[in-house]
Amino acid sequence: MSNQKLMGLMQDDFPLNLHHLRRRMISCHPDAQVATLTEQGVVRARFGEISQRVDRLARVLAQLGVERGDRVGTFAWNNQRHFELYMAVPCYGAVLHTLNIRLFAEQLTYIVAHAQDEVIFVDDSLVPILEQLASSLPGVRHYIVMGDGEMGSLPNALRYEELMEQAGAGSFDYPEIDEREAAALCYTSGTTGNPKGVLYSHRSISLHSTATLMTDALALSKNDRALVVVPMFHANAWGIPHGAALAGADLVMPDRFLQAEPLAKLITSERPTVLGCVPTIFADLLRYADEHPELDLSSLSNCACGGSAVPKQLMRDFEERHKVRIFQAWGMTETSPVATYARPPQDSQHDERYWQTRAKQGKPLPWVELRIAGTSGEEMPWDGQSTGEIEVRGPWIAARYYNDESGEEKFHDGWLRTGDIASVDEQGFVQITDRAKDVIKSGGEWISSVELENEVMSHPDVIEAAVIAKPDERWAERPLCCVVVREGADVSAEDLLEHLRGRVAKWWLPDEFAFVKEVPKTSVGKFDKKVLRGRLQEGSLEGRVTVN
Hints:
Helices cover 29% and strands 25% of the residues. By secondary structure, it is α/β, with parallel strands linked by helices. Among the domains are: 14-200 and 233-247, Rossmann fold; 438-546, ANL, C-terminal domain (GMP Synthetase, Chain A, domain 3, 2-Layer Sandwich). It has a 9-stranded mixed sheet with strand order 2-1-11-10-12-13-14-15-16, sandwiched between helices. A 7-stranded mixed sheet has the order 7-6-5-3-4-8-9, with helices on both faces.
């Protein structure tokens, strides 16, 4: 048979779009549920009910005058209504634009104007923030307030539930959508310059959602209950809501109750099996669980942790003391976001080699191609020793920023330059050693701030540690370690130095420690070393102690 006759025997024109996820919620998983924590307790709704509300919401969008391709903003916590918007807006043919509620006012104003949002859905608890910005957002025609709280002085404000009631019941006639149409828009946190927009297509979200179901990735299934702590305004909450819709997994939404106490109690009562969040929240949760042994977190057999490197000791303490298993994931807004996952072989013995593997960021997911570029752009070998900048490409990796040419240098020849410095071993496990902007170059050699931080945080009395470079006349740069110690602990700089001896190379040992009350965080919970470097430069960094 000729090649021509062999072509087209499969339905390769079947669109990979979010209609498939929406239909599966109704046809295959109507009894899966979304449980949202509120001040009055946990509120539950099944996928079958939510699908009906998604139809209502699509009619609301039409009544609001939203047109195909329009950006629809959300300013919301992780809850059922936000999940309804996740499904309704893209299936309607518009673009879901999740606004980061923790950005500065100037950044939010820029993002709303850049995206040209005309309608913003806002949780009632967040109305006061938008009230202060409304006069700077003349392009927004309507604010839709979700909840029964005050609408304040928001102009042209309407209530979500009232609109839903007026929309009436019945199915909605959704448009056909090409898989390459935009479905969602997320912006980077803007640590340098203005935040950059990343458009996710229906195809990229569909493929990424499928990847979350893979055994070597998050392994979501209909038997799981996923507690979504990573914000839904940050890179599609790592794809967990979309993956749950595809697999039929239950979703547990914490809304604004993200402190260790409500989270620990929610885990004990709702028994989630999957959790996604950043290391700082896991660290808070571990301390609270240690102090309250009556709480049972052991249902968490598969936790994804990312945003920054996860201390090996944190994973060991959780597993050994609370039977909670944490696996590292790596990605960024530009990678939709998950690109690697660190699931060890099933037959691994829990020896030191096993934990060394667990401390890595994992293997590239299927369809993600990864390489390490040296200082001259040459491709480095996968030998576990050679380091360089991670570059990635794949069907859910961004090709450019949305209407912004200022970041074009990050994209070349179909590859994304990530800014992360790493090595890759012979088995394909990625070990990130630093961000390119955070690596410390001392005497012509690199010191990994990430590895140094992890070793400092393995000290039982250290809560947080962030290492930055300080100028040095002889060596160009030397490491300065900013440390938060446990309340009531008596820990000196000499104690920490002694703890590090034998764990890192002698020339890596910090010349100085700064004992701080808290390490500043970015809007998505990462250590904000830019703030620490600024304090060092202006001479306002607290608690500095020089060691020999």
